[in-house]
Amino acid sequence: MDTYAALNDVLVNLFRDIMELEEQAIITQEYQDITNNDMHIIEAVGLGEGNNMTTIAKKMKITVGSLTTSMNSLVKKHYVERNRSEEDRRIVNITLTEKGIKAYKHHEEFHHRMIDHIKEELNAQETTVLIYSLAKLVDFFQQVYGENEES
User: What is the pLDDT of residues 24-46, one digit of tens each?
Assistant: First the structure.
């Protein structure tokens, strides 16, 4: 197999497999009421004081309108809550509930296990090359497709 075909095969399968395997790993019996996308929204809300819809939408690289539908569902399912700012009542912050924090930590654990496994399999030099190579891939996507981001 030539270099082009090998890289194409690895990248195509990697992207597909990460999404499928992540969904299998994090959407367990306990979290069957949400989607993998919902879990990423929970991740974007983050721990602590939360974020407003615009900030979350930017992190997700989607429109606020697209986020609203998912957010309404997550509020109904008690993963997140909306809180008006005391300083400026026009500002609504989204924060994780106790259930949302538990889901966040469950998702975070998947990522820790994935990274720990990769680190176990690679030496320091290989890890450095992998980080450099993946950063180049991210740069490519941001340069070529970044201008088409929704916001």
Answer: 888 888 999 999 899 999 999 99
| C-alpha to C-alpha distance for 100 and 81, rounded to whole angstroms | 9
**How would you classify the pairing of strands 92-96 and 51-52?**
antiparallel
Residues 6+ apart with CB under 8 A from 104: 42, 43, 45, 46, 47, 96
Q: What crossing angle do the helices spanning 124-145 and 98-121 adopt, rounded to 10°?
A: 120
Q: What is the pTM of this model?
A: 0.79
**CB proximity list for 48: less than 8 A, separation 6 or greater:** 95
Q: Which letter does DSSP use for residue 109 in this model?
A: H
CA atoms within 13 A of residue 42's CA, in its CB half-sphere: 29
